[in-house]
Give the backbone structure.
Amino acid sequence: MRILVVNVNTTESITEAIAAQAQAAASPGTEIVGLTPHFGAESIEGNFESYLAALAVMDRVLSYDQPYDAVIQAGYGEHGREGLQELLTVPVVDITEAAASVAMLLGHRYSVVTTLDRTVPLIEDRLKLAGLDTRCASVRASGLAVLELEENPARAIESIVGQAQRAVKDDHAEVICLGCGGMAGLDRQIEESTGVPVVDGVSAAVTLAEALVRMKLKTSKVRTYAPPRAKRIVGWPVAFAK
Amino acid sequence: MRILVVNVNTTESITEAIAAQAQAAASPGTEIVGLTPHFGAESIEGNFESYLAALAVMDRVLSYDQPYDAVIQAGYGEHGREGLQELLTVPVVDITEAAASVAMLLGHRYSVVTTLDRTVPLIEDRLKLAGLDTRCASVRASGLAVLELEENPARAIESIVGQAQRAVKDDHAEVICLGCGGMAGLDRQIEESTGVPVVDGVSAAVTLAEALVRMKLKTSKVRTYAPPRAKRIVGWPVAFAK
Amino acid sequence: MRILVVNVNTTESITEAIAAQAQAAASPGTEIVGLTPHFGAESIEGNFESYLAALAVMDRVLSYDQPYDAVIQAGYGEHGREGLQELLTVPVVDITEAAASVAMLLGHRYSVVTTLDRTVPLIEDRLKLAGLDTRCASVRASGLAVLELEENPARAIESIVGQAQRAVKDDHAEVICLGCGGMAGLDRQIEESTGVPVVDGVSAAVTLAEALVRMKLKTSKVRTYAPPRAKRIVGWPVAFAK
Amino acid sequence: MRILVVNVNTTESITEAIAAQAQAAASPGTEIVGLTPHFGAESIEGNFESYLAALAVMDRVLSYDQPYDAVIQAGYGEHGREGLQELLTVPVVDITEAAASVAMLLGHRYSVVTTLDRTVPLIEDRLKLAGLDTRCASVRASGLAVLELEENPARAIESIVGQAQRAVKDDHAEVICLGCGGMAGLDRQIEESTGVPVVDGVSAAVTLAEALVRMKLKTSKVRTYAPPRAKRIVGWPVAFAK
Amino acid sequence: MRILVVNVNTTESITEAIAAQAQAAASPGTEIVGLTPHFGAESIEGNFESYLAALAVMDRVLSYDQPYDAVIQAGYGEHGREGLQELLTVPVVDITEAAASVAMLLGHRYSVVTTLDRTVPLIEDRLKLAGLDTRCASVRASGLAVLELEENPARAIESIVGQAQRAVKDDHAEVICLGCGGMAGLDRQIEESTGVPVVDGVSAAVTLAEALVRMKLKTSKVRTYAPPRAKRIVGWPVAFAK
Amino acid sequence: MRILVVNVNTTESITEAIAAQAQAAASPGTEIVGLTPHFGAESIEGNFESYLAALAVMDRVLSYDQPYDAVIQAGYGEHGREGLQELLTVPVVDITEAAASVAMLLGHRYSVVTTLDRTVPLIEDRLKLAGLDTRCASVRASGLAVLELEENPARAIESIVGQAQRAVKDDHAEVICLGCGGMAGLDRQIEESTGVPVVDGVSAAVTLAEALVRMKLKTSKVRTYAPPRAKRIVGWPVAFAK
């Protein structure tokens, strides 16, 4: 089984970290292919960048020319998953939703700890649309930008642990979701510090994607995610991919 | 006052129709500028096309080089409004939300009549995110594609009237929203056939945008719609606009 | 166009302040007529007074003998708007709902700052019924009574600013609605102090009413707001209006 | 124990029917006093009449000069209960809420069968505000006006039974609430025809009021229902009561 | 009228306290029979114990061989009420739901003060399923185990009063529900300390059960609570009741 | 990895069918152990039987004396999962929730097709508690009892297909969940007949359980699912297991 794990930003080192985390979570025999978009922002921290990433992810997947069994969109709270589901027949799993689905199997309520405060409403909105918000105790921001996670891991852990602890104590979260693709790999450390299960979205998405493939389940094509109708389109996909 | 009314698809005749409808609804002294995206699909009937349109609308507005006071995104149930709000300081009004806001001033519950069934979930999702879904009685599809509205107006009216009548009778709608930018101009005819107020989204958006400008109100910049942070971005806006 | 702006209490100076605010927000050519109820309380701070005001507003509008195009009920969180909508054919706009509708065009979540804590549940209930509560971050009380706003504007501003700042910081509001007709005119000062857009309900209602009139939209009469049936009624409107 | 049962309309025969139903449901030793408002409409079928009734009920109760232990507002879906709760210290029970509370003890979901279709949204709104709507399967209208219930009981029963049967079969209601004070006394007949428990609001309200009095529980006075503040009020209560 | 009040745990002294409280709340002529389960835990503070109690309560009621008119399940937030409703024809009242229903007649929002923090989610879940959660301001834990209430009443009162005061001040509760069968009898003391009405669940359930019996209302048997179908069952009820 | 798949009823042939379905869905190297409760009903079609099953499942798992990595409760809409989560440290997956979580990855809305109409509210309640109900289009009953599925598979398929088709056409479901453990194995046939993905709960639960085990995630023990406190318990587990 081959699973494409698509980074939402253009920072190669994040793609590599995500792919490594995905491979570690995968079953034997699953090949992970990490993809970096051909265009877009070096990190995604807001709606404009997220919309740009939505197209860039679709563009990147469509320009991948080998067979694959599932696609993971490895951005937290980002737009675009619905578009991929229209364009593809294989399952598409978003890490925001995967993490929440897994967290809900482990505790009564979960919290998400993400990067900047400005991305909190995006994550809340995605969880609401996905119908996975009812048992979300809170979405909390560490205050660190995406790229700072890479630059200063020690400070990142301290800050994320602090918010995770407040989520458990003040918001009654029983599970923590790591709300950023770039946080891959921090889960065990944070779990030790907080005493509650910590769900990494990339790992959750990989194992859910494997589950779907193993069950031979694909995206439903009868209504919302039916293939796009044939029509005249300007600037796609060439303009983006060149 | 100058208001940009941006079509979400690349069909110029629809831009013209929308702009005419907008101008008719505008106050004396308001100049309407209709804009057609430089790329994207000839009609928007699904998530992929809508995400593409989201970027195309942002691209088109940013490449407009004259001053303006407000922007209207003239697509029903489309993605992207949040991105425009980040990029701009002037008010941004989406016709889906404008129509619903106006409809809620006129009756206890409203319904939307749109084009194809596959776009119903997109509209429902946008209303849910906007927090305007509680009093929505139903979103109904006429079964006609966007471009068919132009090609066969008589059949379009018949079909839309039929769904509007069922919305009033079966779903207890007291107001009908015309759920497509391309329906601009049909409101009076349908109002006569159904006996309830019919809200055209473009007109609603124009008058709301004028209201915001007159009150000197602009998009809040403290959190969700703060300007994008300075960062390295590949392929924007040149790749799109050329 | 003539718009009636009806105060909910019997304090003439508040009517004058509201009417002045309304006129300032109105388009050229719109005539604002401020009306004071013939009976009721000097200020409205609770359910009993609000129910009394509901009738007094209906009575006052019905006893106005000139033509008019729209009516604004200028009380925050008050009962009665539905009754006016039954009795009249022209549009009726409540300032609570107008402010919320406008706020939702400007930011992800809004808060209301009102007068006494005891009126908070009334406002929350009206927003819930109007289906405009989903994106309401909080309704906060300044602790000042309605009439204190007039008597000590400096203290009022200080107190309202304090609550507005807490709404932005603690409740993640991105827009503030001024939750009292008597707060008309304070918006710009508070906007400067908080850095977020401040919506004055009277201004919002005037511009929305103008929008409805310009679009020739009136209250739907098919169900909830159908005209009262002909029947025997004792004590109306004579007892009230004499 | 003495309980005031206040009709919302001015039709004496309805007051008598309600009072008889209340007395039949009351415990030995409970005295029921039926009161008819001094002003208002002969039947309540809409918002204007309901707002007028809200004041008329408050006026009528305040002008009752004997001691009493609880008050029942015997109108279905009417405004005003909150005002009574402010003005009084004894418990106030609304029959709409009493019926729903009792129905929820008897089945998984309940439906309300009321009179005219135009009153359905009023009942839905009151149940929503009361937080008793989650398990409401539907509110259905028999199509008969309030006064027709008295004039043609046979037809009324047939029509109400028809809607009750549809509520059970189509909406999965397991309990039926009789949604009109004037339906008092029809419950047993309808129960036989539908096979599900039928809750009469007046009986429910009487037994709940007795329960509150027996537990020495009164309306909370700390916030929403605190007594009105001392202030200048014009036209109350004299103008109404004379 | 005879009402069975079934303790959920096996501590006889709690059964006695509950029965005494129930008798005090009952009307003259109502006989209260306190029952202790034949098996289960000495106190119920979690899901496993609650599920065990659910069966034990059903078992205990079925093994009671005298006639009775209603059954009260005297555990706060416990499982099992739906099972009793299937097995019996007489009304079944759960004290969690009874307390909430009564509280909602007395104030705009209510809070529950219970024992250990771990039981808070159970109570929240039961209120949610019952559709009585909308007006619940909070469920707060005193931090005392069930049996500590008996052992150290002074400390229990102090701790419960503290949480009740915070519920009123911080969560805007206007009514307090005592969230444990073992708290029966503390209501008046806590009411004096907090200034808001305090609802004891056992008393509420008794008076509601009396109301149902007086109205001759029984559990609906058409769907959810239809009698169990005839089928082969192993280990019931003998294994439990021996 | 060893996963216990616990039937909720005492019919061995159903246990065997479930275990076979589970083994077919499992990864190589996963051992499935099917367990049948020592007591309870031959099929579960209501609350009483479901509560009995809840205890029987806990009892059966506790009396299993080999090591295992996860437990699946293979009943649709049944009580008890929370109790297992308290008693165990390994992950517990309920097939109702597993199916819904998987379905939500595949389409915008899903429906459940179950056996008897009387079990519909149980399933709706479990989905509501699990916070997985928002995107549930409907829960439909085939009208066949659990054991009829085994006795007459042809008729079962016809009936289930009929309801699945109505779910897709009338309720806009895009995915179907098979709402009964005993339906295991019918998924492919029904998928062909309806054109939408069909999720078998047992398969979904197995793959999710494997995912949790692979990620080394266990049930959170900080609050809701903390181990039961040490206390005196009568009749557990001996009385049930003997």
